[in-house]
Design a protein that fits this description.
This protein has 144 residues and is an alpha/beta fold. The protein contains six helices and nine strands, in the order αβαβαββββαβαβαβ.
Length: 144
């Protein structure tokens, strides 16, 4: 009888945790060269760095919606992230998500996929890799 309980427990755990994880979409990370190719072919580039980081430089035509804010208390997730992205992107848009190094963008990509965005890719290496590869960037003028 104890063995049947073990098998039943394993089956329940599989149904509750493993199978949903396998069927859900997981974030795809592409390298910076592939990301640039996607952007050049019409994908939107969503930069999830802070406004301050974005102003220092970003890929041309990038859209900026910060995923987190840096506060005196530490990093705080932007509570309006999904709402703000939804106001500038449709769930069927093809989107490359980038940040400074690839960590925040991976988290943002996963959240967007869970929210129903269908064609979202994370750019590995982030803006640092973009600049290191000599790809075109735009910097906003600093206020005097």
């Amino acid at each position: 009888m104890g063995c049947c309980v073990c098998h039943l427990t394993v089956m329940v755990l599989l149904l509750l945790f493993v199978l949903p994880a396998l069927s859900s979409e997981s974030a795809v990370t592409v390298d910076v060269h592939a990301a640039k190719g996607f952007v050049d072919s019409g994908h939107k580039y969503l930069d999830v760095r802070t406004v301050e980081e974005f102003k220092k430089g970003h890929p041309w035509n990038a859209l900026n919606v910060p995923y987190v804010f840096f506060t005196p208390q530490g990093r705080e997730k932007n509570p309006e992230f999904l709402e703000q992205v939804s106001s500038i992107c449709d769930k069927d848009d093809h989107i490359v998500v980038g940040c400074q190094s690839g960590v925040r963008s991976l988290q943002a990509t996963e959240e967007l996929l869970k929210a129903g965005f269908k064609h979202v890719k994370n750019m590995g290496g982030g803006y640092v890799a973009w600049v290191e590869n000599g790809f075109l960037v735009k910097a906003l003028q600093e206020e005097l």
